[in-house]
Amino acid sequence: MGELVGARMAERLRSAVKDPGPPPYGGLPVVLVSGAAHAPGADVARRFAAGGWRVALTDPDPVKIAAVLDEEGDGFITGGFELALAGDPADAAGCRRVVDGTLDAMGRLDCLVHVVAAPAGALETLEPATVNSVVAAGICGPTFLTQAAVPYLEETFGSVVLVLQQAGDALGAAVYAANVALCRSWAAELAPRAVRVCSVAAGSGLVAAQEGGVYDVTELVWFLAQPQAAALTGVQLDAGTGLAAGARALLPTR
Q1: Residues 120, 164, 124, CA angle at the centre, nearest 5°?
Q2: Secondary structure (3-state) at 33
Q3: What is the residue extent of each domain of the chain?
Q4: Which fold has domain 2-241?
Q5: 116: nearest Cα among 11, 202, 57, 216
Q6: Is the peptide bond before 40 cis (omega within 30 degrees of 0)?
Q7: For residue range 190-212, what is the model confidence (pLDDT) as tens digits?
Q8: What is the dihedral of CA 152, 154, 159, 160, to 10 degrees?
C-alpha cells in the first residue's frame, strides 16, 4: 500500500513539474463549488473561472445560485460558470445527484470546494430547526458531497478544499471544529487514492481585506487546487490576518 501511495503521489508531482498550468489530464479542469450563492463561495468560483477552469456551482438556494450563474454569462471555452445545481445538503441522494450531474455535463471533476459558514446564535435562542440546518449545511453537506465525488477525484488526482469560518457562537464553533477533524481524517483516508484534502480558515466574519471586496481566501483556495500544491494534504492555511497568532489588529492591506 505504501509503495502504491508513493508511486501515485510521485506521478502527481511529476505532472506538476512538467506542466505548471491546469492539470494535464485532457480538456479544461473542472471545479464544483458548494455554497456558491454567497461570498466568499461566489468569489472562489470566479477565481477558478478567471484561471481557465470550468465551474459548476451548487447551493441549497435555487434562485440565488441561478442568479450567480446568470451574472457571469458565457465564457466556457476559456473557463467560466457553466452549471448551477440546487441541492439539500442533508440529503445524501441529492448530493450524489449534484456530483453526478456535474460529471454528466462536464465530463470530469478535478476539485471540490466546500464553503462552510455556519453562524447560529446564542444557546438560549437556538431553535431546533436552526440546529438541524446548521449541522446539515456544515457537516452533512461536505460529507455527502465528498463521498460522492471521491471516485471521480481519484481519476484526476484531484483535491477537496474546505473553506471554514471561525464562528463566534458555540454551534458554529462546533461545526468549524468538526470540519477541521474531517479534513485531517479524510486526508489520511484518501491519501492511498491520491486525493488531497486541505482547508482554509477564513477568519471571523470572512473579512474582505482588499479593494472591491475580494476575499483573501480565494487565492489560497486556488493555490491548494493547483499541481504546485501536490505535496500538501491534511493542512490548514490560516487567513485570519494574524489574529490566531495573537495580533491585536488586522494586518494592513496593499
Answers
A1: 15
A2: strand
A3: 2-241
A4: Rossmann fold (3.40.50)
A5: 202
A6: yes
A7: 999 999 999 999 865 444 444 34
A8: 60
